[in-house]
Amino acid sequence: MDAVESSGTVRQLGWGEGEWLNPPVRALPLGDGELVVTAKPETDFWRTTAYGFVHDDGHGLLAPLPAGTAMEVSFVVDYDRQFDQAGLLVRVDAENWVKTGLEYCDGVVQLGAVVTRDLSDWSSAPVPEWAGRTVTVRASRAGDALTVRARVDREAWRLVRLAPLAPDAVATAGPYCCAPTRDGLTVRFTGWTHGPADAALHE
Asked: Per its UniProt record, what InterPro entries does this chain match (predicted)?
């Protein structure tokens, strides 16, 4: 299944169309349509589970994600410090959000998602072959569900997570990054689109 198969228009979003949740050190638009973001050190999104702390100071460039729509973010995975991370953040409020993307953890790049409803729930799987390549993460909102998919380059989409999201919830979404353990993380975002939700959960 092509995850963007549905009626409606897919639109490339400009980096100026979002609002920063916790502005980064620097966000530099490039002439080729890319955005280079430098994260502040010791930033993250997490709530309590296992680690015992709450962090809500990661960087997210967010725009509306109404019910019945989907959003994609593309970026280059070229980071290599513990818990370096980038991808797509879907946010209702500080206690209800989903982040999905690539995180460097325990010596390898991992594809995963954190679903937070008061407490954070993390799932991940190693994808070392994705390092140094362009990854796209997609969140599709339909009914009471948020379907999260990802792919590298133009390979097939992989289902990452199916999470609950109330149909009447007011949500925003967009590119995010965090640098929990170091200074100087820079992430190169290459695309940001908004369009219709996926036509179906399965092919």
From this structure: ConA-like_dom_sf, DUF1349, UCP022704
Measured distance CA(58)–CA(126) in Å, rounded? 23
Phi-psi region of 160 (alpha: psi -120 to 50; beta: other; left: phi over 0): alpha
Residue 58 has pLDDT above 80, yes or no: yes
Helix (H, G, I), strand (E, B) or coil at 128: helix
Domains of the chain listed by start with CATH number: 13-192 (2.60.120.200)
The closest of 178, 197, 193 to 81, measured between CA atoms, is 178
Q: Cα(171)–Cα(190) distance, rounded to whole angstroms?
A: 23
Question: Which candidate, 158, 76, 79, 48, places its Cα nearest to that of 111?
Answer: 158
Which pTM does this prediction carry? 0.95
pLDDT tens-digit map of 178-193: 999 999 999 999 999 9
Residues in the chain: 203
